[in-house]
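Tokens in:
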């Protein structure tokens, strides 16, 4: 993955609130549920990246970045799946993610706003995932799991910045304002949800 040299400034554009402190103990109390959900989060991240290639094939930078990102995410699916196998835990069905659905509802229908919003919603999900995977990395007892979660958290920060960089290129005049708006809306979405042993 290419280095994003202006990543700190990009990340500042998406000021996500800190997770409710009740989330981490709830997640740690049911790691099987967290991993089962996490596997599908990584799968859906790959599919979201590929869906942007389907929608915007003429945008060469986006196609290249999303192909690489989907590759990262499918590797994460493998890594989480290996972790679950090590724990003797089978994967389960995906029962949907109303967090992501609530954020997707904020995507405007018309272009070029639609592209900007899709990029920023994906950046938001990556940013929130990075925060929570990082919290798990700092708290898990098993050293191999800790190491895995720390590496995944770093990757998701990089992904957040890739989406922000594409958003900036797609809409230089409005991306910052819209990113701040979506960060505020994400805080509202989180506040209305029950806290559970899931990534979001
Ligand atoms: Fe990932
Ligand atoms: Fe990611």
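Residues out:
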């Amino acid at each position: 993955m290419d280095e994003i040299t202006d990543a700190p400034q990009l990340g500042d554009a998406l000021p996500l609130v800190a997770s409710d402190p009740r989330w981490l103990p709830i997640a740690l109390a049911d790691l099987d549920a967290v991993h089962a959900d996490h596997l599908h989060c990584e799968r859906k991240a790959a599919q979201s990246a590929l869906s942007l290639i389907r929608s915007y094939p003429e945008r060469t930078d986006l196609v290249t970045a999303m192909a690489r990102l989907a590759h990262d995410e499918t590797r994460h699916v493998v890594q989480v799946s290996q972790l679950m196998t090590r724990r003797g835990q089978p994967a389960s069905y995906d029962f949907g993610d109303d967090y992501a659905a609530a954020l997707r509802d904020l995507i405007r229908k018309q272009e070029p706003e639609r592209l900007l919003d899709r990029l920023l919603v994906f950046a938001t999900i990556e940013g929130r995932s990075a925060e929570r995977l990082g919290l798990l990395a700092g708290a898990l007892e098993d050293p191999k799991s800790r190491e895995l979660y720390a590496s995944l958290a770093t990757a998701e920060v990089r992904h957040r910045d890739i989406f922000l960089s594409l958003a900036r290129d797609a809409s230089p005049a409005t991306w910052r304002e819209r990113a701040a708006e979506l960060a505020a809306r994400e805080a509202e979405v989180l506040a209305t949800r029950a806290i559970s042993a899931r990534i979001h």
